[in-house]
Amino acid sequence: METEFHDPDRTLARSEERSREIEAQIAADPSRFRLLTGDRPTGRLHIGHYFGSLMNRVRLQDRGIETYLIVADYQVIYDRDGVGELKDNVFNMVADYLAAGIDPERTVIFTHSAITALNQLMLPFLALVTDAELRRNPTVKDELATSNRPMSGLMLTFPVHQAADILFCKANLVPVGKDQLPHIEQARVIARRFDERYGRVDPSRPVFPAADALLSRSGTVLGLDGQKMSKSRGNTIELGMTAEQTAKLIKRAVTDSDRHITFDPANRPEVSNLVNIAAMCLDREPVDVAEEIGDGGGGGLKKLVTAAVNDHFAPHRARRSELLANPDHLWAVLRQGNERANAVAEATLAEVRQAMSMDY
Ligand code: TRP
């Protein structure tokens, strides 16, 4: 059966329901799970990443779940010509992971490009998918539309590569945003087809498990103009920014002319987004924060948001600077993660070769 990407609203509702079930299972027994997730190092991480994914990863790691974090460097090149600031972005990403509380003793942090056996899974996996289902993948379609260039072979097949990211370590839990749901579905289909076509080494379980998406519980943080956060729009508060840079950015943020501040995302998206950012930093309810500002207007709101963001991220920023001051340590963390990921990938590839009768 071809991978179907059903009605997105229904898929989302089902994934949200499933995420709630999984949260209950995690609370009961975290040892059943192995988690993999990661980021494309196309730029610096910002507070949207922090509240949307980093915090959640740290929480799950601290619950005792075996965690793999991929810095998806090969995903940087599917829609652009050069590698740009790749190395610097990777370096800063590792720093932000550690500063946020990812513990490299417990969590394996690694880069795509360093894991030979992971990449080799791509070939057998490519045999399990059709051109038509790859072209139907709604996230690939969106990426193609925003990239403004012809589809590269890598862009068309990156969900297959991403399946290799998930399956090389036999992860069964993938915390992601909803745009990634089609890729998790593709990974499940690949795991199932591999089982059907090549069978098992251990008769009691398939070579690859079916991974579940875990949708983050916190709401989305928008950019300072109320649009989607993106580097190119200059509307993001990067984790590495100084307090002064943050203040300057928030000063330029879009608000409206009503001096009475309310939390009303449908009608006042920009104002409500600022209220929401402050609320997340203060760990309070947005309506309470809005009420406190009252008739303080855009100025009062911005003052409060700036203080909240700068206070909340001061420890992160301090740890980040310390880490950046010792590059040898950061690169060593990544090298060790790569070594561990390589060992896991080699073991999985050996099992794949055996299942495929290619273990000569
Ligand atoms: N595509 C993901 C993103 O853009 C990053 C990523 C790469 C990923 N490999 C992954 C996420 C595997 C989850 C699992 O955010």
Task: Tell me what you see in this structure.
With 360 residues, the protein is mainly alpha-helical. It folds into two domains: 8-220 and 342-356, 3-Layer(aba) Sandwich (Rossmann fold); 231-325, Tyrosyl-Transfer RNA Synthetase. The protein is 55% helix and 7% strand. The chain is built from 14 helices and five strands. The protein has helices at 8-28, 47-62, 86-100, 116-120, 122-126, 131-136, 138-147, 153-167, 181-198, 243-251, 269-282, 286-293, 297-324, 327-355, and strands spanning 34-39, 66-71, 107-111, 173-176, 212-215. Strands 1-2-3 form a three-stranded parallel beta sheet. Strands 4-5 form a two-stranded parallel ribbon. α2 (47-62) links the parallel β1 (34-39) and β2 (66-71). The relative contact order is 0.14. The model has no long low-confidence stretch (mean pLDDT 95). Tryptophan binds next to β1, α8 and β4.
Question: How does the SSE layout of this entry go?
Answer:
Blueprint: H1 8-28, E1 34-39, H2 47-62, E2 66-71, H3 86-100, E3 107-111, H4 116-120, H5 122-126, H6 131-136, H7 138-147, H8 153-167, E4 173-176, H9 181-198, E5 212-215, H10 243-251, H11 269-282, H12 286-293, H13 297-324, H14 327-355
Parallel strand pairs: 1-2, 2-3, 4-5
Helix pairs in contact: 3-13, 8-9, 10-13, 11-12, 11-13
Bound molecules: tryptophan.
